[in-house]
Each structure stands twice: as C-alpha cells, then as structure tokens.
From TrEMBL:
<protein>
    <submittedName>
        <fullName>DUF938 domain-containing protein</fullName>
    </submittedName>
</protein>
<dbReference type="InterPro" id="IPR029063">
    <property type="entry name" value="SAM-dependent_MTases_sf"/>
</dbReference>
<dbReference type="Pfam" id="PF06080">
    <property type="entry name" value="DUF938"/>
</dbReference>
<dbReference type="InterPro" id="IPR010342">
    <property type="entry name" value="DUF938"/>
</dbReference>
C-alpha cells in the first residue's frame, strides 16, 4: 500500500497555482524531503515542461517509488538519498529547489544546513537565470502564531521533539538572506500555511 498524506491532498493545488508561475522558466527542480511522493506526482503531472527530482532519507524511498511507479511520469526522477546533516548532496545542478513541511520537523541547525545546501546546489547550475527556492509550511510572524491550530500543532511538535517546532518567518528570511537568497513572495495558503519564494541574488 502506498503511503498517504491528507495534508498533501489538501495543499497540492494551492501550491501548484503558485509554482505554475514561479517555476515557469525552470528546467530541473530538486525536491528536498519528498515524503510520500504525492507532491512530486502532482507537480510532475501539471508541470510537464520541467524535471522534478525527488529526494529524502532512505527510509521514505519505497513509499515514494510506489507513487512514482503508479503514475509512470517520465519527468519525475526516482528518489535520491539526501540527508541535510551530510555535506555530500546528490550531484545535481538544479535551477530550483522545493521543500514542503520540513522546516518545522527538523531542528533549527538542520534548517540552516538545508538552506546552505540549497544555495550550493543552485549556485552549481550553469544557468544564466537566478536559482529559485520555494518553501511551504507554517510560520510564525512577529513571534505570534497565525491561528489556534498552529499553536496546538507547535505544542504537539515540541512535546514529541523539543528541537522541532514552527519557525519564525523573520528568522527564516534572515537565514536565507545570509546564504544569498532574496525573498520575492509570501503567499498565504490554506490551514494557516504559507509558501515562501526566494531567488539567489
């Protein structure tokens, strides 16, 4: 049986609406933390002009492969092993990076390493256009939750793992800026989530 995320089903179309525009001139997307593989299948289906490369920890690869095998999409790549704690990332030269629902799961140092790795990967691409980064998930603004649901969600995350939790928008933007990214968009999504878009300066 394929793994299934109800959240992916709810947010895939709102995310796609933004990515249709933001990734219009993109050739190769590296997805960090592909999870179940549902986003990859949906984006690959509706963005046939680009190649969508999945990646995650090895424990998630079987589930991702099941989704990809059922979909049979020629423009979606089988999952590559990627651990943000390791300095060696897959040898790719993407012109875009996408990650969803990762920042609040991993620790803050891992968020920092993810952003640094994304910048390295994008800078390696031999393209004239600037590399792009899209980050989806819940964020706090001015130190405040955007809704009671996020407050409860954050408490649950921190009880399960004190190093996880909803990140502050301002801290994420500042860290991204330190890696050479400039924020170009912040789109509100359903269920108090946001899709942040960046380009490399």
């Amino acid at each position: 049986m394929k793994p299934y995320s109800a959240a992916c089903e709810r947010n895939k179309d709102p995310i796609l609406t933004v990515l249709r525009r933001f990734f219009a001139d993109v050739s190769l997307v590296l997805e960090i933390g592909s999870g179940t593989g549902q986003h990859a299948v949906h984006m690959g289906t509706h963005l046939p002009h680009l190649t969508w490369q999945t990646s995650d920890l090895a424990v998630h690869h079987d589930g991702i492969r099941r989704w990809l095998e059922d979909a049979g999409l020629p423009n979606v790549g089988s999952p590559l092993p990627l651990d943000v704690d390791q300095t060696e990332w897959p040898e790719l030269e993407p012109d875009a990076v996408f990650t969803a629902n990762t920042f609040h799961i991993v620790s803050w140092p891992q968020v920092q390493r993810l952003l640094a790795g994304a910048a390295r990967a994008l800078k390696a691409a031999a393209v004239e256009k600037r590399g792009k980064l899209a980050v989806y998930g819940p964020f706090n603004y001015d130190g405040n939750y955007t809704g009671p649901g996020n407050r409860n969600f954050d408490q649950m995350l921190r009880q399960r793992d004190p190093l996880s939790g909803i990140r502050d928008f301002e801290a994420v933007v500042a860290q991204a800026r330190s890696e050479g990214f400039a924020l170009v968009g912040d789109v509100a999504m359903p269920a108090d989530n946001h899709l942040l878009t960046f380009v490399l300066d």
